[in-house]
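Action item from last week, closing it out:
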Amino acid sequence: MADNTDIAARWAELGQMDRAALRVAWAEAFGDAPPHFLSMIFMRKALIWHAQCRAFGGLTTEVKRALKSVAGGMQVRAPAPVIKTGTQLVREWNGRRYQVEVRDDGFLMNGDHYKSLSAIALQITGTSWSGPRFFGLNGRAGTDA
């Protein structure tokens, strides 16, 4: 598997290529000749992207699907934030401090297990909230009522 040094070396190599050499590299990478109107810098960027995808993996299926949706004029919802197990979330609400531990199977607050942050936000506030937003994980956290 390649590393960042290999990618940097490939970028330097691409930077030394003339148009003819870039067209050959393109055909080797993508299986067809590039359109004639492509600039050399675009071909270099596309070729280094190709090298990075081969070395480190390309776009996930989820990202590809989202890009197609956006290109089709649809709105795409941001994915839920990934929170590592063991993370401690702290939120102050109405002068009281709440601490939540992220677990593999949900969340723990004051010894009680919850399946979602939204359930915890409901427990704390008595109203329906987006749990990730309440804890400031995506966008502005709620303000004290």
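Closing note: The chain has a mean pLDDT of 89.
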